[in-house]
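Q: what does this look like with manganese (II) ion bound?
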Amino acid sequence: MIENKFPGKDITSDDLKDKFPLVAKKSPDHKSKFSICGIEFGGDKIPVFAGPNMVESKELIEDIALNVKKYGASFLRGGAFKPLSFPYRSKKYNETREEGINWLNYVKDKIKIPIITEVMEEKYISFIAETADILQIGSRNMQNYPFLTACAKTGKPIMLKRHYGSSLRDWLGAAEYILVEGNKNVLLCERGVVAPHTHRSTSRFLLDLQVLPAAKEITHLPIVVDPSHATFWRPWVSSMSLASVAAGADGIMLEVHKDPDNAAVDPLQPIDYFDFNKLMKSMDLVAKSIGRSIF
Ligand code: PEP
Ligand code: MN
């Protein structure tokens, strides 16, 4: 690492010792490996999380769980407590909250698929932790430090999404808040950053694939990539997923919906079952070319 005595956005060698010693690699080939529900992270296999943006109904989440499992997803994703961008609600654009978590719990038992779901508020952490196998901390809460500490204290595996305006230094600092509580099962997740320009009016974010090699120089933690939120645009999800695998992603999170155009939240980004199946096979080919695999 180039010596830099002026911390800011850049990471200095002192940061590795003083600011995030637990997140920092101890040696060049130090890589964390751990299992969640029998699924290994940080190894040669690349687990996939798939499911809708929002847990909309019991019937829909069951159908999606069945299909993503059939095509090789290791975890079902889906939010019941959602960081919706606008406060107004309709019958369709509405969080399903406790009911949604109960549907996830039903599906987890019935379809036998582990669950990753977002926690938004401290008072619901223990309720959600009874169902979730991984607690997802969303990008908007990345630097809500007391919240990170409270989630870490459950002892549950945690996926920490990068805020779309966060430097690598701030992201790793936030992860240190979880590790310092003795919670070692932490996944980082790149989900797109805000750039001063976009490639079309619908692309809210820019997938920062360069953060994968950059983060891997510094941290031993596995890194998941979420091309669905990054692109915000279904036609780009497949190529960015393949690129994520090639760039060293240790997990892929994908929005998959039975009827993408009619998804209650972010209908521009989910892919359907047919495309998910196709993408899983293509990602496996790319993974195999670098000595890894999806299946
Ligand atoms: C999500 O994964 O459902 C989500 C809201 O993601 P982000 O926090 O990255 O916007
Ligand atoms: Mn979303």
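Residues 42-287 form a domain with the TIM Barrel fold (CATH 3.20.20.70). The pocket of phosphoenolpyruvate (ligand 1) is lined by residues 53, 79, 83, 118, 138-140, 161, 191, 229 (CB under 6 Å).
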